[in-house]
Design goal:
The chain is of the alpha+beta class. The protein contains five helices and four strands. Helix 3 links the parallel strand 1 and strand 2.
Length: about 130
């Protein structure tokens, strides 16, 4: 586990410290190191960039890029998705789901090709009433 912690910036006596004494960002890095140490085949990350400091964000990015398994990321952070995504499954308006091989920039380019000038127009979601 010390090797895993070292990959997230914890060296020497830091690996023996009480986690409760760490900052929020450091605690997040410890959690990432623990997950990496367990080596699951699949990671489901829901808004993983929320409330992360820069060092933890970089560590998360590196962890995802170097991860041997499958990582599913649900995020509104376009910059982060552009850096780590290899495929995009986008849930667009009116219940349309679009699959794209590539990062977020590739998805945006394809969306503009599909929708033309409508891609840049703001829109409101229309909710359908549930049938009873």
């Amino acid at each position: 586990i010390r090797d895993s912690l070292g990959g997230y910036g914890f060296h020497g006596d830091q690996a023996l410290a009480v986690v409760g004494t760490f900052s929020g960002g450091e605690q997040a890095r410890v959690a990432l190191a623990l997950v990496a140490w367990q080596r699951p085949n699949l990671l489901l990350l829901d808004e993983p960039t929320n409330d992360l400091d820069v060092d933890t964000l970089r560590a998360l990015e590196e962890a995802i890029l170097n991860y041997a398994g499958c990582v599913v990321v649900i995020s509104h952070d376009r910059w982060f998705l552009d850096r780590v995504a290899t495929h995009i499954l986008a849930f667009e308006g009116d219940g349309y789901v679009h699959w794209c091989e590539g990062n977020f920039q590739t998805y945006e380019e394809q969306r503009r090709e599909r929708l033309g000038i409508a891609a840049d127009e703001p829109h409101r979601f229309r909710y359908k009433k549930l049938r009873q």
